[in-house]
Amino acid sequence: MEDDRVNKLKCIIKSLGIESARLIEEKIDLQYIYLKNLKERLDNDELFLKLIILNALVSYQLSTTGERWWKEFSEYPWEDISGDTLEEYIRFLSNSKGNRRFLEGKIKRLYKLKYLLSTLSLERFKNYYNNMELLRNSLAKVLNTKGSSKTVVFAVKIFGYGGRMVFNRFIPYPYTVEIPKDSRIEKYTAKFTKGDVLKFWNEVAIESGVPPLHIDSLLWPALGDWERVKKPLKSLNEDVCQKVKKLIELV
Questions:
Q1: CATH of the domain at 25
Q2: Which is deepest, 14, 167, 192, 216, by most CB within 10 Å?
Q3: Residues designated as active site
């Protein structure tokens, strides 16, 4: 019975494919929409990509919802900053409304990125976009954490969003970058297996032809506020909407 449900899961994800994930990311995910607004307003691609990576790496234990936090970040007057990017970001974070918890630890974490940040040109960002696994490895090394760390892989996902906007090209996420393992994913995975969460989704990714970070995009509407997502998704593509609904019904 368990194997049957796992097979159904793989079939649904395979039938959705990367393009359905992309639709959800670019048309439904408010984080993408806020980033797009910021990119259009900022008119500085290098600064834009630096800022979104910094913000992604401290987007945990928030004082508000993820969507509100990214809205606050995107609406900050970054176009007016004239000093050091890292210091300006830390000033924003220190006075933010949506990210007040564990502030000291988050700021200490950001300072570890000081040298890496200084080396990031638009050309290097282009190389990272062509090989997002390299970015994952660079961030993990600098932060002295695992490459599968939730905030590191989330930063890669957000950078992928920004890369599409800056370089006007869609590159799928690599299969080697894991799904962000949070409580929602752990709880959902437990319905299918008692084994390792990341290993399970890596196997689903290979068999379905959809990389883990794109699987994350297919799952979050089902695991989050489905009622909010259902109507706009149905109006965009009813078939995708019905298949995402099946992901909920599996459990």
A1: 1.10.340.30
A2: 216
A3: 150, 182
